[in-house]
Specification:
heterodimer; A: mainly alpha; MetI-like fold; 15 helices; flat; B: mainly alpha; three-stranded antiparallel sheet
Amino acid sequence: MADITSSVDGAAVLNPPRTRRKQGYRQSRLVRNLRESIIHALLFFAGAFSILVTVGIILSLFVDAVGFFQRPEVTLWKFLTGTTWRPLGQPVVPDNFGVLPLVNGTIMIGALSGLIAIPLGVGAAIFLSEYAPIQVRNVLKPILEILAGVPTVIYGYFAITFITPQLRSFVEWLNTTVGTDIRVDFFNALSASVVVAVMIIPMVASISEDAMRAVPTSLRQAAYGLGATRFEVATRVVVPAALSGILASFILALSRAVGETMAVTIAAGATPKMTLNPLTSVQTMTAFIVQVSFGDAPSGSINGQSIFAVGALLFLMTLFMNIVSNIVVRRFREEYE
Amino acid sequence: MMAGTAQGQVSGYIGIEGRRARRNIVGRVFSVVLLMCTLFGLVMLAALLVDIAIEGAPWLSPSLWQNYPSRHAEKAGMRSGIVGSLIVIGITALASFPLGVGAAIYLEEYAPKNRFTNFILVNISNLAGVPSIVYGMLGLAVFGRLFGLLEPGSAFADFLTSIGFQFQSGGLNYYEAQLFNIPWLSIRLPFGRSILAGGLTMTLLILPVVIIAAQEAIRAVPASVRQAAYGLGATRWQVVSRTVIPIAMPGIMTGMILAISRAIGETAPLIIMGAFTFVAFLPESVWDRFTAMPIQIYNWITLPQDEFRVHLAAAGIIVLLAILLTLNGIAIFLRNRFQIDWQ
C-alpha cells in the first residue's frame, strides 16, 4: 500500500528527479515485470476489498440476528408479524418482539418526507435545468447541495428547536381560531419528516437535474419549433425523457430517508407504536438501534442481539430499494444518438 | 394539443390569442412554483443557520475547546470530542486513500471487462447506499468484537497466545502483543472500542464514496495522455503513476475531502461501535477510548436542561460547522494548488 501512496504524490511525480530516472533505465526487464505484477496484485486487492466489506456486513448482521432468533424468547414469525415492540417488557416473550411498530415508524417518516421532498426536489430540478440562467444555476445548485452535507445530528437539533415549536404554535393557532382539538407531542414524526425531507431534497434535485440535462437539446428545439411554450417543453418533453433518472432519484432518496438515523432519533421520539398519526411520538428502526447502543447493552444479551435483527431487516429494505433503482435506470433509460 | 383545440370549440371559442394567453399564464404560474420549490431548500438552510447562530453564539467561548465535558454548563467543553474527531478522520484519511484510490485505479486502468469486474462495480454502488448505521454494526462486530472469535479458550485465542499475545482482562478483555520489543508499538485484538476501531469503521463507510469519486477523476483523464506515455515505452504502472494519477489528483482530492467531511459529521456509526460520551482525557495511543464532536453534541441535545439542550449544543454545532468549513476551504485550496493546466 505504501508503494501506491508514495508514487501517487502529485507534482513530484510529474518531474521525477534525475537519479531516479537513470535507475529506471538500468532496471532489467525482470525487475520491471516483477514490480508491475506486485503492483497489479496490490491494486487488485484494493479493488476486490469492497467484496470483503459486503461479506463482512452480511456476516456481522446475520450471525447475531440468527443468534437472536435461536433464543427461546423470540420467534422469527412473531418478529415479522407482531405489532408490539417492548424489548424491555416483562415477561420476555415472543409477543413483545414484534418489529412492525418500528417498521411503521420508519415507513411513515420515509413516506412523509418523500411526500414533501419529491415534489420540491423535482420542481427545483426543473427550475435549475430548464428555467434558471446558467450562472444562477451554477450558484444555486452547490448551495442546495450543502443541505445534503450538513451533519444529520444538526438536523435533529433544528427539528426540536425550530420545526417542532413552529409546528406547535401553528396548531395552537389553528385550535383557537378554527376550534379544532389537535394535540402535537414534543417528539413527533412530522417534524422529523420535515428535516429528513430537507436533507433528501438535494438528492432528488441533483440526480433529477443531471438526468434532465442529459436530454439532448435537439429534442427541446424540436418542441419549441412546433410552438410549445417553455412549460410544455419542460413537462411534456424533458421530464418524460428523463423519467428513469428522476424515478431512480426518488428511490435513492427514500432509501436514504429509511436509513436516516440521528435526526429521527432526536426528533421523532422513542415510542414504538402502530399509528398513522404523524403528530405523535414514534420510534424508527434506526432510532431503536441507537437507543440500545447508547444505553450500552451487553453484547450477548437479548437487546444486544435484537439490534442486529432490526439492522438486518433495515439492510435488506435499503438493499432492495437500491436494487430496484438500478433496475429502473437500466430498464427505462431512453437512449439517444 | 389536438384535444385542446377540439375542446375549445365545444366549450366556447376563445381563439388562438386566448389560448396563447392561457398557455402563457400557466407557464408563468408554473415558473413561480418552480422558483418556490428551489427557494424552499435555501430558506430552510438559512433558517437552520440563523437558529443555530441565535441559540449558540452567546455561548461560544474558549472553554468549548479548552475544557472537557462537565455537569456544569458554564464549564462544559468538547476538547476530547474535537481531538477525537480529528484523530478519527486522520486515521480514516490514511486508510481510505490508498484503498479507495487503489481500487479506482484497478477498476479504471487494470480490470478486464468481465463479470467479476462488473460484480465489483455493482457491489460498490450498493455499498454506497447502505445506511451509515449498518456500518456501525459492522465496525462493532468486526473491529469491536472480532465476531466473538476471541472468547478465552477458543481455538483462535489459543493460537494468539501461542504466538506471543498476552491476555489482558480489565473492563474489556483483549489480547496484546508487543511488536519488535518497542514499548509503544503493540497490537491488540480485538480493537475494542478504541479510536483505531472508530477510524477504521469510518474508512469502510466512506470507501465507496472515495472509490466512485476517484474513478470519475481518473475517467476524465484524456486517453491521448495515456497513449503518449505508452508510445514512449512506459509500463502500465508508469503510465498510471506518472501521468494519469497526477492529472486526476485534484479530482481525487476533492472527492476525498468531501468524503472526510461526511465522516466528521457522522454520529450513528460511532455510537453503535461504542464510542464513549463522557471522556475527560485525550487519547494517547490508537488503543485508547474516545469520543467525537457529533456524539458530544448529541449527548448535550439529549440532556433535559435548556443550557445543554439548546445553547451548548448550538455552540458545539457552530464549532463543528467551522471545522467542516475549514476542511472544505483546505480542499479548495489544495485543488487549485495541484490543478494542472493542460492548455
